[in-house]
Specification:
six-stranded mixed β-sheet; globular; 5 helices; alpha/beta
Length: about 130
């Protein structure tokens, strides 16, 4: 039995198969995930698990060199915006409109749907390297 890290077998597999520059997108429970992209739905209830706590766990195993968020996050969901800024200090942050975000996110290798139910709680994590 695995002793630490990500215990969800599907998400653990996603992280293990990420290559440099691959994208994994973490989204709120209302996000329209494209039909042709593999995803893990981890929604247990409204708000569970949360957006930030899901990202924190991913960061325990995933090297991230850049993130992309919707510019609307900063103005419409300050709590999650501040949380993102704290989690990704020193990492490149790109902001774009929510509509453009949804188009760009179609390039993702995987999606993870959380139970988050606050606006614009979506982020693309661009995989880095560990060497």
């Amino acid at each position: 039995m695995k002793k630490s890290g990500i215990f969800n077998s599907k998400i653990s597999s996603f992280v293990a198969s990420m290559g440099h520059k691959d994208i994994i997108t973490v989204v709120d429970m209302g996000y329209p995930i494209p039909k042709d992209i593999e995803f893990a739905d981890i929604v247990l209830d409204k708000g569970k698990p949360g957006f930030l706590e899901t990202i924190e766990v991913l960061l325990s195993e995933l090297a991230v060199e850049k993130i992309i968020i919707a510019e609307e996050l900063e103005h419409n969901n300050i709590n999650n915006y501040v949380g993102i800024v704290k989690l990704f200090q020193g990492i490149e942050v790109e902001k774009m409109s929510h509509e453009l975000f949804k188009e760009k996110a179609k390039m993702s290798k995987y999606f993870i749907r959380t139970g988050e139910c606050t606006p614009f709680s979506n982020i693309m994590l661009i995989s880095g390297v560990i060497f």
